[in-house]
Amino acid sequence: MTLWRRARRHNARGYREADIKTAADERLVNSQLDIINHLDREIERESDVIPVAVKDGYVQESRSSVASTRRFDALRQFVNRKLERAGQEILKGAAGLRPYKQGTRTACDYCPYHAVCGFDTKTAGYGYRKLKGMKPEEIWRR
User: What ranges do the domains of the chain cover?
Assistant: First the structure.
């Protein structure tokens, strides 16, 4: 039984269907069907657990949030470069607070360190890095 289906059954325990479905919608999944079947063994048309739709044994990419193995490798390399640069900056003593903001969402929405970080937009010198919206193809070109 998938997590989504268990959550629907166990709502009294505090699972919230909307939260679980939203988390599934924000994920990126490898587009290989065998990997998709490992992630959701009960998928028929549209998964309740991962953002994937399948029809006649093929992933419907236009209705799914998927990327090829090659793109996952490129994403991994990009993230590693970013982490290396961030680590170097921290070692140099540059550890400023510059969370992102995109639309109404910010990095602070997900951060468990609100009580200790000291970030406050009302304080001079503090502000969000504005992220512009990009189409998926623009992101992959970077």
Answer: 1-95, 96-142
